[in-house]
Write a structure and sequence with these properties.
115 residues; transmembrane helix; transmembrane
Length: 115
């Protein structure tokens, strides 16, 4: 279980680094455009980037099952948002892939650490 928890945290940090330090790349992967304002870049750096880095680093530093479960709840929240988009906004292959990744990290992280 400890190895899985560390992998979940490192996945959060690794994926978050892209959003935080390479927001234009992340936006391209998410089919987003920034327009004339830099607010889109700021939002990606914050919500798809540094937020996930902070979650992963926090879970590693605290190192308790509760911390890793909370990391899982965050990923599950992302999966719920993605599932909502699949139902309301339309189904696309890329959305399914992101949903599967989010659920594959979130669900095990919750259940392994709350059992």
């Amino acid at each position: 279980m400890d190895i899985l928890n560390i992998l979940f945290a490192l996945a959060s940090i690794g994926l978050g680094v892209f959003g935080w330090l390479a927001p234009k790349y992340t936006m391209g992967q998410l089919d987003m455009s920034g327009g004339d304002s830099t607010m889109a870049l700021s939002e990606v750096r914050a919500s798809a980037g540094a937020l996930f880095v902070g979650m992963g680093v926090g879970a590693l530093l605290i190192g308790t099952p509760t911390a890793y479960a909370m990391l899982g709840f965050c990923w599950c929240g992302a999966a719920v948002g993605r599932a909502t988009s699949l139902v309301i906004d339309g189904r696309f292959k890329k959305k399914w892939i992101y949903f599967i990744v989010e659920a594959a990290v979130g669900v095990p992280a919750v259940f392994l650490n709350l059992a």
